[in-house]
Inverse folding.
C-alpha cells in the first residue's frame, strides 16, 4: 500500500512538473487528457457500432442460406416420398 501511495504521488508530481515545463497549467493538461479520452471513447463506440452492423449482415446472410438449404431438403424429401408412393402403387 505504501509503495502504491508513493507511486501515485510520484505520478502526480511528474504530471505537475511536466505541465509546467510545457507552459500549460495542470488544469489545461487535465482538460486536454479528458478531451482525448472522450474522443477515444467516441471512436470506440463508432467502431463497435460498425462491427455490430457487419455481424448482423453476416448473420442475416447465414440465416438466408440456411432457409434455402431447408427448402432444398424439404423438396428432396417430398420427391423421395412421392417416388416411394409411386413405387408402392406400381408394385400393387
Amino acid at each position: 500500500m505504501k509503495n502504491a501511495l508513493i507511486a501515485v504521488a510520484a505520478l502526480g508530481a511528474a504530471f505537475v512538473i511536466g505541465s509546467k515545463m510545457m507552459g500549460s497549467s495542470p488544469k489545461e493538461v487535465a482538460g486536454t487528457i479528458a478531451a482525448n479520452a472522450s474522443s477515444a471513447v467516441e471512436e470506440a463506440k463508432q467502431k463497435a457500432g460498425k462491427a455490430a452492423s457487419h455481424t448482423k449482415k453476416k448473420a442475416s446472410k447465414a440465416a438466408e442460406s440456411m432457409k434455402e438449404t431447408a427448402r432444398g431438403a424439404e423438396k428432396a424429401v417430398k420427391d423421395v416420398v412421392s417416388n416411394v408412393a409411386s413405387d408402392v402403387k406400381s408394385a400393387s
